[in-house]
Amino acid sequence: MDISVIRKTTNETIYLKRFSNLRTKQFLVEQNEGLLVNYTNCNSNEAPEFEYQYTVLGHRICGPILKRVGYEQKIIQQIREVSRSGNCSYHLIPSNAENIGMETLFISSTPKKTIEVTIDDDEKNIQRGELIVVRNWTSVDLLNSFEVESSARGGSKTLEEIVAISTTSSCSCDISRITLFPEEMVELHTPGFPDFLCPSARCETLILLSERNETEEFEQRVLVRVDAVAWNTSELRLSSGTQEILFNEKTFSRLSTNFLLDYQNVKVTYTTTQDFRVGTEGQFAVQVMNVKIRKACDCSLFGQKKFVEDWSQKISIPSDCEVMFCDWIISASAKKRPREITIQIDNAHDEDQMFIWNSKIMEKYPSDYLDQPRKVYINDSSSDTHIFFRRNSSGPTSIVNVSWKTLHDVDCETFTKISLTKNPKAFISPNYPMGYAHWGSCTLLLTAPKNYYITVFINELELEAAHYIGFWDGTSSGAPKLAKFTGTEYNREFSSTGNNVFVEFISYGRSKKRGYHYIAYAVRSPNATEEMETFEETTTDSPLSTTEKPVPPSLFVESVVMVLAEEIVKDVCNMCLFFWNLAFYVIVIVPIGLAVFFFGRVIVKKFNRPIPFSLEWPSFLKKKSRSSDMEMLIR
């Protein structure tokens, strides 16, 4: 007897299976589908009997028998609770009829279990495993058997979810070995690139470098570029000599950056788990290039690739450098404290670029972003942070400024006063560029010297509609308003009339928006005759702090904050002492007094002597005794 599924909407007939000895069997089909049964023995004693009924799919353990699988993940078996043993049969066919025999089928379950399939209705072509891969497939029959032991808790069992996907993507690895000569480049991609994450992949490529051929003027290096989106089931590892860099969801989220390695062979290793998915997540594109660099332009810093303490440096970029690459790795904070990174390029070249990234952020800055200071917070103590500078062609003599320092926190102060000079300073929202989480108001007073006014440039602003940052032309919010921003703004500039600008940031809640980044600096008034006064700048723990040099962590907390903290602690201690004394009198002294009183009363009664203590009741509670002029005594 042959069983087929017929589809009313497309007038299709899909052959399922031939049964030679079929006793009791259930077939479930979708809406607008039916079953076609062909049998040759029409003897009434041997003819099959049929029953048809409508049912609700959501209540069934097994789903419809026919499953069309394409380039989107298809659920074959739903998660179900079962109370007795049984099995579910499924017939899988490609959803795209034009690609029949040209695609690869992947089947797996979560959690992992052994799956058994029959390929092309051939009983001899059976495949078993936790991951089923069928290349050039046309049809597959899947039998999901399950047993419920009587001793199982509650007499039930949970069926695992089984999913499948069919794709034309190749899951083969790139070349495994290649020799790279000077100025040559090799590009490697993950299996299934760019939009299919292949399961159980392991690819390893060894890149051999040609013999070192350095001169007095040039030296050789290895430049690596990585573009990727993280996923929890894929991992990339770069190994070169003693250096090893690991890329996974713990070290980055989205990545587009470069690395400069010493001149040694490079091994690129890529691995995935048994999970598969459609999308760019988990994909890597790796470029490895054999480059020559002028020795005067070498900024690889191989002597110290990883930094633990706060650090600051100015690096000169000579004008005759055709290429120059600098990279730094900031070690994850052992104290789990945030850091503030500041970068800037003086006299930047048009093609200069800088990158800052870790497991939470990926910031890429072109040259026109770097002529003024750019600042970010690093509030992730679980992964290293990478900074990279790249120049691809000769240009002007430039200075790269890089610094970072450890902070107490990344929230903003209730009030902070900052003195400005002609050099621009960057100001950022709490936790920038990650989502900010601030409740309330924080204010800032920007002050310039006499005969100077203040210019503010909004680089980037992304706030919730209910949150805002405002600027006033004076020392408080009562002064004339210069600007007030909410929502999204970029590249906005305005100036004060005097030498003070009052800034207020209002936020009541947590947001995933980036926050704000702006710069401010003092500008000499046109009619000014006096020179700029010299003064000391105010520094605090605030996100609005603009200290250019790293500060020892022990000095981060400002003395005013410490005084306030001491006063708060003193008040709390006095309050605790008051309640302690009160509790002592209530719990100890009062019970002792009552005990002495009643014990003395008992003793006096025993000797029939009056207690030398009388209690006069209020007039409305007085009781008359035999002698009206005698007050009631407590005996």
TrEMBL record:
Pfam families: CUB. Keywords: Disulfide bond, Membrane, Transmembrane, Transmembrane helix. Signal peptide: none annotated. InterPro entries: CUB_dom (IPR000859), Sperma_CUB_dom_sf (IPR035914). Residues 412-523 form the CUB domain. CDD domains: CUB. The chain crosses the membrane at residues 577-599. This is CUB domain-containing protein. The lineage of its organism: Eukaryota, Metazoa, Ecdysozoa, Nematoda, Chromadorea.
